[in-house]
Every structure is written in C-alpha cells, then in structure tokens.
C-alpha cells in the first residue's frame, strides 16, 4: 500500500540521506512530497519551500531530515500536516517535537526510513 510521505529536509544532493530516502520511497511505490529550503526537483517532484508552509493533505508519514536545532520554527507546520506518524531519522531526534506530536495523536518513531524500507516494516 502506498504511503504518502512528506520528506522534511529534502535535497537534490545525491550524497544526502534525504535524497536516498526519496529514491527508495519512490522505488517502493510511495508518493513523496519533498519539502525543504533547497530549490529543485527530486525524482520528478518539485521541492516545496518549507518557509511557505505548503499545504499537503492525506499525509501518512513525515520523515525528518532536519536537525533538531532547525525544527522549532516548523513545529506547528509539521504537526499541522496531521500525519499518522513522524519518523525521526538518526540525528533528527527531538523530544520536544515528539511530545507535541503525541499530544496531537501522532505516532512517533526514532528510526531510519532507509532501514525500515529495507527490512519491509515501512
């Protein structure tokens, strides 16, 4: 089943994990919505400007590739996407955002999207 996934911290840089995740999610048949500060396109999808809080509906998963020091200004936006879950990839762990998400009824996981996809538990 396809899970619409918002990639927070999307990038066109092929050496970044957010780029690998976009590739693997696309290959696994999941719809991706790349969101970040970088301009460009990944796997046929335009990177939406996070500073403009782009509206995205029917979000299953938010996968985080934005360090905790850069997350606070986007808390309301991320929680407001109303995803079923937020995956905090290594280096993005943030207890403050986890608490806000859980209070809004959003499942949170400290995990790696790439490992989850590779092991079939995404």
TrEMBL record:
This protein is called CoA-binding protein
Which domain of life, per UniProt? Bacteria
Question: Which InterPro entries does the record match to this protein?
Answer: CoA-bd, NAD(P)-bd_dom_sf
Give the CoA-binding domain ranges: 3-117
Classification via Gene3D superfamilies: NAD(P)-binding Rossmann-like Domain
